[in-house]
Amino acid sequence: MKTVKCKERDQLQRSYHRAEKLADTARERLRKKMGTSSREEFRTLQLAAEQAERELKDARRSLDQHIREHHCKAANAVSVRD
Ligand SMILES: [Zn+2]
């Protein structure tokens, strides 16, 4: 089975990985600040982390949806059951 080349999927995959990194960074920052920051500062970081999580989920959904509709899934990609 050969891998289908798809520019749009590549792009969606890149956005997904970027969102993943941002979410990781936000979570890490939140963890480091735990107990050392003011309540307000912590709340701001918490909101930023939540926002990053939402963006990560959206990116994942867009990628999954594209793969489902376009049938351009790479052979080694995470399988989506339907
Ligand atoms: Zn595609």
Helix-strand blueprint:
Blueprint: H1 7-33, H2 39-70
The chain binds zinc ion (ZN).
Zinc ion (ZN) binds next to helix 1 and helix 2.
Number of separate domains: 1
Radius of gyration: 17 Å
The proportion of residues in beta strands is under 5%
SSE string: HH
Describe this protein's structure.
By secondary structure, this protein is mainly α. It has one domain (7-70). Helices cover 72% and strands 0% of the residues. It contains 2 helices and no strands. It has helices spanning 7-33, 39-70. Helix 1 runs antiparallel to helix 2 (39-70). The two termini are 20 Å apart. The model has no long low-confidence stretch (mean pLDDT 89). The structure holds zinc ion.
For the structure shown, list the relevant keywords.
2 helices; elongated; 82 residues; 0% strand; binds zinc ion
Short description:
Helix content is 72%, strand content 0%.
